[in-house]
Amino acid sequence: MNQCTVTFLPANTTVKVTAGTTVLEAAQKAGLPLKSTCGGAGTCGRCIIKVRRGEVQVKGGHLPAKLKEDGYTLACQTIIQGDVAIEIPAESLLSKHQVLLQDKGRLQDGLTDLLGSYPLEAACEVVTLHLAEPTLTENTSDTSRLLAALRKEKGVEGQVSLALLQDLPESLRQAGWQVDVTLARADNRLLRVTPAGSGRSFGLAIDLGTTTVVVSLLDLRNGRRIGQGGSYNRQAVYGDDVISRIIHATSNHGGLEELRQAALATINEISNSLLANHGINQAEVTAAVIAGNTTMSHLLLGVNPKYIRLQPYIPAATEWPALTAGEIGLAINPLATVQVFPSVASYVGGDIVAGALFTRLARGEELTLFIDIGTNGEMVLGNKDWLIACACSAGPAFEGSGITCGMRAMEGAVEGVTIDPETCEVELEVIGGGRPAGLCGSGLIDCLAKLRRAGIIDRTGNFQEVATPRLRRTDEGYEFVLAWAAESSHGKDIVITAADIKNLIRSKGAVFAGIQSLLKTVSLELEAVDRIIIAGGFGNYLHVPNAVEIGLLPDLPAEKYVFAGNTSLKGAELALLSRPAWEEALELGRKMTYLELSAGNLFMEEFVSALFLPHTRLELFPSVTTGTSLERREG
Amino acid sequence: MPVQVLRDRSRATVQKVVLGATKEQGGTRSHTIVVGGDAALPFHHFEGEVSRPVIAMEVQDIVPDWPDVLKDPFNDVINEPGRWAQKCVAAYGADLIYLKLDGADPEGANRPVDQCVATVKEVLQAVGVPLIVVGCGDVEKDHDVLEAVAEAAAGENLLLGNAEQDNYKSLTAACMVHKHNIIARSPLDINICKQLNILINEMNLGLDHIVIDPSIGGLGYGIEYAYSIMERIRLGALQGDKMLSMPVICTVGYEAWRAKEAVAPVSEYPGWGKEVERGILWEAVTATALLQAGAHILLMRHPEAVAKVKENIDQLMVNNAY
């Protein structure tokens, strides 16, 4: 096969590939992953590149005419034929970006909040043992000696693995028979033997999200959080949502392994840098707890996810066996225990179970609605007596994905919009205070509410003919300019298009329809809900009245709303630090009743009537519509 | 043991809409017609007030592309919309005239706006009953035509159509300015039906100036969908949903005479019987089924079908209260 040298600019990185490789694949190989929402299908138009020099073949793909004229092509559609130089514009790079670590929410961090009434019984404990040195008469084996001491000290029967055994003789002698033994609490497996006084034990709590991955490093002896890190899930180059990932995993040869490696690489990279920053060895990390949605759990463990996508949507498993880091490939102590949160069903995963655990959903009397709006909208309703969960395909619009100028909540994202109804002039609130680069979920919600209030769109989301230069017609319909090129950080207009608005209305409609479906299934009215917990990064910047105004969230008093931040991560931390909490999580997974929304008409009916601002049944949103003169106008 | 018959009492009624205006009211009609006002399901006289459904006969501004069977009764007047309307009222007892300005269609006769307006005036002069006027269906042209009609017939309290979800603003504005009523048309969808009413109402046109056209299917062509949508509209109205409380208009003639069964010649289908009877029955049965679903205004074509449906309405309006 013909080897070609590909040089990427401006990074000036070179990589050798065979002719016929796409630029997208070459960039991935060069460690410069590109944005690829559609997973290389040529439809999303995100992996824009420019061929500077050399021979390529361009297959086509969806790209605005303007960019085509300027010589840009899509990396996934550009096939390398010889030695080439490729320029990658900054916006095409799947940059490591800021991932939500800090929560503005009410449920603040801190050990007391995290553990609450759960005891600190971490996944591993360190036991110091003083062994008697063997003699000619006291000549039992090293292992028996160690286990006897453990039995005497803790009253437990330790389990020894071959890997530990292989090094044990030297470990014991070098330690002078005074050792710290790291013990897995679940099964009394011996994980590590070190000289007494040196046995530190750390654990990782991992939130394996479809879009982002966050890892928390905890000291298992005192439950203290040492650090956190987060990054884009590297699987993103194979598509933005779980469906395109499943398709990649099941239709491409080796696709599942690629996804598994991408997830592992993401986690390992974050944890390695965390460990390096805090001077901790991989060997000292002896436990990990992973919370991810059902698909992510399948992909990380290399389990065939095919039937999650196909009706009747059956996962391979909802509970995972006890695992070790070595067998799944985490770059920590190979013997470390790995617990993967159980799922409820194909589309209500371990992240939701972790969230339910952390927010104590099943501990109180009060009726609670837990909503996680992310790439999918998952929700759980219930209290200590019963729990019912569902997932609605809300799409990733509120994460900024699939929206022309959408972005995640990070520096440069517009989080608030003000539109003067008279002049149609716009003021933007930007995270970080700088120039705007795009709109994040909260900005999109605000934008929708304000466009409607200013009469620029009507309740169906259609643009109205308002005389302002900001409203303009393109080949694809109307768009409204929120920031002119000169005001934005990248020198391009920031717009919201008619298609974006329809997309957002569908997303918010799906979430609200999911809530209504849950309530109707248990024959309860919205008013019966005592507390609504909003999970996910999305909630941190969310302005509840705006979300109510567009009909995304139910019209309930603001004091019933609670933001809980990344509950998936916090649930994982809790399970890592407290064995009883983990056991409760297993119980939670089994206890939640799953409502399959694609069975029957309930969801569809609710969805269709929610495709209006705020809702076709205006009476569901009294605070939005009172004051409006509906009644008066009838006269 | 005596049977205890349960009666449903409604929380609300269907909105009353007044069509037409007499001289005192600023128009030139000999009388007005009130549609709606029902406090019960269709013809449940024993549960509350039931309004009498009315029939509007269709007249077009150009000679329509109708089968001969349908054109025959009007052969002497089909070139003159005024006389055609007159015949419908005087000879066939039409409660209202439904004037369809198909001649405006840019793809067809492409009549200019003032000619369309003249036709409306001609019909207004020819008959004393209230008028329903709809455009040709071309959005841009209808915009101009209906606005001019609304202005020229200001005070006549017409029923103008059709407003649709993507195109309701200009007609609503015209109806508000010149004091007419509007047909809000939705594609067999209860949600869009309601949303359109909200949108129109939010422009400040009163709910008592809106009539719902839910879109129907003729007999054999999805009439059951229309039935269930109309049933939901009526149930909603009776339960107090203001945004579903308007009277319902049904394009019976148009849908019935589109059916192959109504127009196919007997030579092709000897087993189907004479087409003249078939078409009339197809239209009459479509209409009577929709009466049961809660239709208030039936837009019909053939005089014999109209006669049959009028007879049926008479029977249904006999009070069955006990």
UniProtKB/TrEMBL annotation, chain A:
Pfam families: Fer2 (PF00111), RACo_C_ter (PF14574), RACo_linker (PF17650), Raco_middle (PF17651)
Sequence ranges assigned to domain 2Fe-2S ferredoxin-type in this UniProt record: 4-92
Gene: nqrF_2
Originating organism: Moorella mulderi DSM 14980
Entry-linked Gene3D superfamilies: 3.10.20.30, 3.10.20.880, Domain of unknown function (DUF4445) (3.30.420.480)
InterPro entries for the chain: 2Fe-2S_ferredoxin-like_sf, 2Fe-2S_ferredoxin-type, ATPase_NBD, Beta-grasp_dom_sf, Corrinoid_activation_enz, Raco-like_middle, Raco-like_middle_sf, RACo_C
Signal peptide positions (record): none
GO molecular function: iron-sulfur cluster binding
The protein's name in its UniProt record: Na(+)-translocating NADH-quinone reductase subunit F
Domain of life of the source: Bacteria
Organism placement in taxonomy: Bacteria, Bacillati, Bacillota, Clostridia, Neomoorellales
From TrEMBL, chain B:
Official protein name in the record: Corrinoid/iron-sulfur protein small subunit
Top-rank taxon: Bacteria
Organism: Moorella mulderi DSM 14980
Domain CO dehydrogenase/acetyl-CoA synthase delta subunit TIM barrel: 17-267
